[in-house]
Design goal:
Radius of gyration: 22 Å
Shape: globular
CATH superfamily of the largest domain: Tetrapyrrole methylase, N-terminal domain
CATH topology of the largest domain: Cobalt-precorrin-4 Transmethylase, domain 1
CATH architecture of the largest domain: 3-Layer(aba) Sandwich
Order of helices and strands: EEEEHEEHEHEHEHEHEEHE
Largest sheet: 6 strands, mixed
Number of domains: 2
């Protein structure tokens, strides 16, 4: 159902409760509730023309719009166009894992300025886009097709407005930006991507773990197991497990048993530490400390059927060497 935001004050971008559970989880007190003053929009709504859903409400004086120069022979997105400046009208924004405080400042400012806010409601909480200005059109794209989302973007562009497409996490990971951008390129519409915090990094932060350990592992592989979307045979999970590096496994909660089998087949010990992050950043989000052998049962026991990322950390319990960065004999550009 389509509509516009009312003229009332939008709800604050608050933080939800979060938890850490399972053996090895750090002890911590009750959740700390924090609030902050909402950023004011960076420019007036009418800086981009009238909102798609109605007349823009009065706002502070407009800040200059961003202009983007495309690559040689084309504009942002690779479409053929003269080498000149283009005004970006469509932004793909990484919303982060769900916590409204984990969207970037640039992303939140663009949401606050936009005439159309098109967000993936199945994965992005409404609080992330609650800073949309009064009069902006805010739409959940979950029930829409690619063609329908493109039609909404183009309606805003043709009206001279600013459209933001808000994706979960970071748009470069398991997103659908390429096909959306191709449609914009075909119509000569300039677009940009604003990066976001991906779930693996948010889960690691909440669990208090790291992916790299000096002298033990210096690599992180981001991957998934094959489901409805196939995975190339050379990228089978067991092949990555055999390397002994850290892994962040997405989109595999329903296949947790397969994840366990593949990790063991790759030679990882049953007791290898694993962190499972569920809806990290959402009010009901949590992380669970478990092992390769126990991960499937732990997730099933809590009813986590989706929105889970597994962090496999073979070096977590190894005695690594201290970082050389702060060693007295380690010279660099800031220290002789």
């Amino acid at each position: 159902m389509f509509g516009t935001r009312g003229s009332g004050q939008p709800p604050a971008c608050g933080r939800g409760a979060r938890g850490v559970v399972g053996p090895g989880a750090p002890q911590q007190g009750p959740p700390i509730e924090r609030t902050k003053e909402r950023r004011q929009p960076g420019s007036a709504p009418d800086a981009h023309g009238p909102g798609v859903g109605g007349t823009a409400a009065p706002a502070p004086p407009a800040a200059p719009r961003a202009w983007t120069k495309g690559p040689p022979g084309g504009m942002i997105g690779g479409g053929a166009a003269p080498k000149e400046l283009f005004m970006t009208q469509v932004y793909f924004i990484g919303a982060g894992p769900g916590d409204p405080d984990l969207i970037t400042v640039k992303g939140r400012d663009l949401v606050a300025r936009a005439d159309l806010v098109l967000y993936a409601g199945s994965l992005v909480p409404p609080g992330v886009v609650a800073c949309a200005r009064p009069g902006a059109r805010v739409e959940d794209s979950a029930p829409l097709t690619l063609e329908q989302t493109h039609a909404l973007l183009m309606e805003t562009v043709r009206a001279g407005g600013l459209a933001v497409r808000v994706h979960t996490g970071d748009p470069s990971l398991y997103g659908a930006v390429a096909e959306q951008a191709a449609l914009l390129d075909a119509e000569g519409v300039p677009w940009e991507i604003v990066p976001g915090v991906t779930a693996a990094f948010a889960a690691a932060a909440l669990a208090g773990v790291g992916f790299t350990v000096p002298g033990a592992t210096q690599s992180l592989v981001i991957t998934r197991v094959a489901g409805r979307t196939p995975v190339p045979e050379a990228e089978a999970l067991r092949a990555f497990a055999a390397r002994g590096c850290s892994l962040a496994i997405y989109l595999s909660a329903a296949l947790a048993g397969e994840v366990r089998r593949e990790l063991l087949a790759g030679g990882l010990a049953p007791g290898t530490p694993v962190v499972a992050g569920h809806r990290v950043g959402w009010p009901d989000g949590a992380v669970l400390h478990t092992t390769v052998d126990g991960l499937a049962g732990a997730v099933a026991g809590r009813g986590w059927g989706g929105q889970v990322v597994f962090l496999v950390l073979p070096a977590q319990d190894r005695a690594g060497s201290p970082s050389r960065l702060y060693a007295p004999d380690f010279s660099h550009g800031r220290r002789g």
